[in-house]
Specification:
Layout lengths: L8 E8 L8 E8 L4 H10 L2 H6 L3 E3 L11 H29 L4 H8 L2 H10 L8 H9 L27 H23 L8 H4 L3 H14 L4 H21 L9 H33 L9 H21 L24 H12 L1 H10 L10 H27 L4 H4 L3 H5 L2 H22 L5 H8 L3 H25 L20 H27 L4 H7 L4 H6 L1 H18 L9 H41 L14 H4 L19 H4 L19
Antiparallel strand pairs: 1-2, 1-3
Helix pairs in contact: 3-11, 6-25, 7-10, 7-22, 7-24, 7-25, 9-20, 10-18, 11-12, 11-24, 11-25, 13-18, 14-15, 15-18, 15-21, 18-21, 20-21, 24-25
Length: 679
């Protein structure tokens, strides 16, 4: 509104590849209103007909002239967000009154005189009070605790040391992985800055090549961060569900009960992830694009968010978007709604189709009595077979399609980067660690295994940890060897010529990098999770990481949106890259992303998670138990029933074994209240 307006004129943007310039750039112009896109393109072509016949320009003159550009969908999404805010405010006020004004008998009697207050509190009771900020805040900042530190049940001289099962270090691992992913997205969103040029880092400063090769790819790209999430996910599924499945009696099972059991296992997980995903999807699809009028912004936003959501919103909600519609092979563009949601699909597919088979084999011997004595060996063989199959499929994809370090380390985005069969190794190795920790926790039944791990010499663990850490760093640093092109030459992102690695070496790396990453994590976090990680465990298990880790799911979906809005609407000049440029943007994106994620967690994720857990607590029947130790119920801890304690949301640790296994928030388990983020 404050910008001077030229009468009878309009603002247009032309995208053109000028003669002698490698990258397509955008040019803004003020032209008469009677000129249309075709006329402007024709005028540009006449300046060099031969060149522009091969590289035709594209002009757009359809930018909104007011801010915001409201339409019914944008108004509807805004109303939804306002409703959540109002419900959160009302529930918080109601919760405060119930805790501090109308909590006791005398206060209750006094409250009875104020009928409208009681009615209002009744309307907001139950599910509505899940939006109360007080219990949600307490759940967020709740201090994690050590999972197992008890030394009972062992023979007096059986071991010389005792293990401490401590999963708190996973909070630090997950938060640092999220920071690394945001750092990688910081680089990619700045590099591919469509507000000025498609490839600004190639077009303007040869010094950028050196910085890219020696710093960005090895340290900042974060392409393996999601594999850390997959490792943690597999670990927690195997560990927490093993705790519950071991209490169920195979002799009392029925096919009807098992179908219900595993059906709820899948449905509850889907319902747990859906609210945040829907809110983020609707916001970026229908609202964000209507709030900005930066030149060129809508070209990017429509192509990246609006058009894919128009066509394939349903695939994202069903968590099949990485398979259909998939994405481009060269590049990192998905055809689906919410670009980074491919990770959620990979994790969901492994959770639904891989984890149950491994767990059923391990605990129940595929429900066959004949396999009971060999069930654990069968499960181990099955995991090994799955790993071998994954590596074999990955090798075929890499060799058949010549996958190397294309497009910022992505490789072949559609065939290689976003498919569950290539990303499975870290998840499977995480399950291995989860099952191992489960067995170590049952030390009275697995005393031999416990003794082996408890008596491993410190110097052996130090050597193993350092070896895994060195391999861990080398896996991240390998691109520095690959990108050894002469100074001033473009990084080899589409072929293997002029690289520091041969084609066979590049292929071997792309085949084995996910397996190698998972093995490194398996070694290092076996040591930390059994309480032998010393300083590393102390650092990663600190209280600071716990609330940050609980915000990871929202942060993963939201941070990239903030980065896209910033880079595609505000950066209108060439970016010259160095460490300070990268880190300054990164700090802003981390702070901004986590600030919005905090609001998302308090007003969407935590309330809907509590509502779902309360509903499941009331409707899921308790399965048959092996013994009295498995008969703890919700009512035993909370006689008033689930949801009656408005001081906090219900955790999995508060549920009975039968109900806990259906809780989709496996990340909020008693095991240090680990919260798994979804990248």
């Amino acid at each position: 509104p404050s910008t001077p307006r030229v009468e009878s004129a309009q603002y247009c943007v032309s995208l053109l590849l000028a003669p002698g310039v490698y990258s397509e750039t955008k040019w803004g112009m003020c032209v008469p209103e009677d000129l249309d896109n075709i006329t402007i393109n024709a005028a540009i072509v006449r300046t060099n007909p031969q060149f522009y016949a091969l590289n035709p320009p594209k002009t757009f003159c359809t930018y909104p002239k007011t801010l915001p550009d409201w339409n019914p969908a944008a108004i509807g999404v805004t109303a939804m967000l306002v409703f959540f805010a109002a419900l959160t405010f009302a529930a918080t006020v109601a919760g405060y009154l119930m805790r501090n004004v109308f909590s006791g008998r005398e206060a209750g009697a006094a409250a009875g005189k104020v009928g409208w207050v009681r009615k209002a509190l009744g309307v907001l009771g139950g599910m509505g009070l899940c939006f109360d900020l007080h219990p949600n805040w307490k759940g967020l900042v709740k201090e994690p605790r050590v999972e197992e530190q008890n030394r009972e049940g062992l023979e007096a001289n059986s071991v010389s040391r005792y293990l401490t099962i401590d999963l708190r270090s996973l909070n630090g691992l997950r938060t640092l992985s999220m920071f690394w992913i945001i750092l990688g997205h910081t680089g990619s969103t700045i590099y591919f800055n469509f507000n000025l040029s498609y490839f600004s880092y190639w077009s303007f400063n040869p010094q950028n090549y050196w910085w890219l090769k020696d710093w960005y790819f090895p340290f900042y790209a974060g392409v393996l961060g999601v594999d850390t999430f997959l490792f943690i996910s597999g670990l927690l599924v195997a560990y927490k569900f093993s705790q519950q499945m071991s209490k169920r009696s195979l002799s009392k099972m029925s096919w009807k009960r098992e179908i219900q059991f595993w059906g709820m296992y899948c449905v509850a997980r889907w319902l747990r992830l859906l609210p945040v995903l829907v809110v983020v999807m609707l916001t970026v699809w229908k609202l964000v694009g209507q709030l900005l009028t930066a030149p060129g912004f809508h070209l990017y936003w429509d192509a990246s968010y609006v058009e894919p959501c128009n066509k394939y919103w349903w695939a994202t909600l069903l968590f099949i978007q990485n398979i259909y519609p998939g994405g481009e092979s060269f590049g990192n563009k998905g055809y689906f709604c919410v670009p980074v949601s491919w990770y959620l699909a990979v994790d969901m597919q492994l959770y639904v189709f891989v984890a149950p088979i491994v767990l059923i084999t391990y605990h129940y011997g595929l429900y066959a009595k004949v396999f009971q004595k060999a069930k654990k060996y069968m499960a181990g063989s099955f995991i090994f077979a799955l790993l071998a199959t994954s590596i074999g499929l990955t090798a075929w994809i890499v060799m058949e399609h010549n996958v190397m370090w294309q497009f910022l380390g992505v490789g072949d985005f559609d065939r290689y980067y976003i498919k569950p069969w290539t990303r499975a190794p870290p998840y499977l190795l995480g399950m291995v660690l989860g099952l191992l920790i489960f067995e170590l926790q049952r030390k009275e039944k697995c005393q031999r295994l416990y003794t082996i791990f408890a008596n491993v010499k410190d110097w052996v663990l130090v050597i193993l940890f350092l070896a895994a850490f060195v391999a861990f760093v080398l896996l991240a640093f390998t691109p520095a060897f690959y990108l050894q092109t002469p100074k001033g030459r473009l990084p080899p992102l589409s072929e293997n010529s002029d690289t520091g690695m041969t084609e066979d070496e590049a292929h071997a790396y792309m085949i084995l990098r996910y397996l190698g990453w998972g093995l490194c994590l398996l070694v290092m976090f076996t040591i930390t999770c059994i309480g032998r990680g010393w300083l590393v465990n102390d650092l990663l298990a600190g209280y600071f990481w716990a609330p940050m880790a609980k915000l990871t799911y929202c942060a993963y979906l939201i941070a990239i949106v903030i980065q896209d809005v910033t880079t595609q609407s505000l950066i209108n000049h060439p970016v010259y890259y160095n460490t300070w440029t990268m880190l300054s943007y990164w700090v802003v994106f981390v702070v901004g992303g986590y600030a919005v994620s905090f609001v998302c967690y308090m007003c969407v994720e935590a309330p809907f998670g509590s509502m779902l857990r309360n509903a499941l607590s009331a409707m899921v029947p308790k399965p048959p138990q092996k013994g009295e130790e498995g008969k703890r119920t919700v009512e035993a801890e909370n006689p008033a029933g689930p949801g009656a304690d408005d001081e906090r949301p219900v955790d999995e640790g508060d549920l009975s074994p039968g109900e806990a296994i259906f809780s989709p928030t496996r990340e909020e388990a008693e095991a240090g209240e680990i919260e798994l983020g979804h990248k």
